[in-house]
Amino acid sequence: MRIKEDEQPMMDDQQLMRYARHVLLDEIDIDGQERLLNSRILVVGCGGLGHAAAAYLTAAGVGTLWLADDDVVDATNLQRQFLFLPSDVGQPKAQVLAQRLAHQNPDATIRPLVERLTQERIVGVLGQVDVVLDCSDNFATRHAINRASLRTQTPLVMGAATRFEGQLSVFDPRLDDSPCYACLFEEGQADDGACAVFGVFSPLVGMVGTAQATEALKLLLGIGAVACKQLVLFNALQAGTQTWALKKKPLCAVCGHWKRCR
């Protein structure tokens, strides 16, 4: 991670009280919580997945959260994007969500990016963060994030949800044997319209989004086993999850290229 130990301030009494339940955990303690307070995350997509992920990352004490989305709030979003109000319809999602989260935790710096990120823009932002969460809803954006993750060596936590089914995986370019998103879904695939066409079960996006937040926090803290080299499948109509092993494609057109160039 890019966090420097000598940049971590001591928590004040109010922060020690706020994060007391984290501090009680041996795996986190005061040092881990201070690490979170100095961490930086980019969340791409402020829909259902981004809502759940960003809310828990902010509550957990992540110091700086970038929220990227060029869309506006629509009435159809209110079924699952719970921090939006009917009065927010027509307003920029990233801006509204940033305002809500800033009220939730004054310790956090929330930076809305009301724009469709270009490849170079994503690279520029990833150079300033420790982890990126892909909460987007189209293949073009997902592949752009994947390429930027490889270029900047930034861990990527991917989530997806449609109908009653969700997916989660972690791609960590710092590890030589980690696959990338293109190992799972090759570039050039056509978008299927996702939930705008097939619908999505409201709590499912919360299940996947909070799982993304969990993986991001584990990466920042260096604890537990993250879902790298795994594809976790959610089915809201069934209990539990399924996990499939993922392998790096030797001839992947994306991460194979970056490996050759390193």
Please write out the topology.
Elements: H1 13-18, H2 20-23, H3 29-37, E1 40-44, H4 48-60, E2 64-68, H5 93-104, E3 109-113, H6 119-126, E4 131-134, H7 139-152, E5 156-162, E6 165-171, H8 181-184, H9 194-198, H10 202-221, E7 230-235, E8 241-245, H11 255-261
Parallel strand pairs: 1-2, 1-4, 2-3, 4-5
Antiparallel strand pairs: 5-6, 6-7, 7-8
Helix pairs in contact: 4-5, 4-10, 6-7
Task: Provide a short characterization of the protein structure.
This protein is of the alpha/beta class.
List keywords for this structure.
globular; 262 residues; alpha/beta
Descriptive account of the structure:
The structure is a single chain. This protein has 262 residues and is of the alpha/beta class. The protein contains eleven helices and eight strands. The protein has helices at 13-18, 20-23, 29-37, 48-60, 93-104, 119-126, 139-152, 181-184, 194-198, 202-221, 255-261; strands at 40-44, 64-68, 109-113, 131-134, 156-162, 165-171, 230-235, 241-245. An eight-stranded mixed β-sheet has the order 3-2-1-4-5-6-7-8, sandwiched between helices. The longest helix has 20 residues, at 202-221.
What is the topology, as strand order, of the major beta sheet? 3-2-1-4-5-6-7-8
> Count of helical segments?
11
Based on CA atoms alone, the radius of gyration comes out at: 18 Å
What share of residues is helical?
25-40%
| DSSP strand count | 8
What is the overall shape?
globular
Rounded mean pLDDT score: 92
Which structural category do the helix and sheet elements fall into? alpha/beta
Low-confidence stretches: 1-6
| H/E element order | HHHEHEHEHEHEEHHHEEH
Distance between the termini: 19 Å
Q: What proportion strand?
A: 15-25%
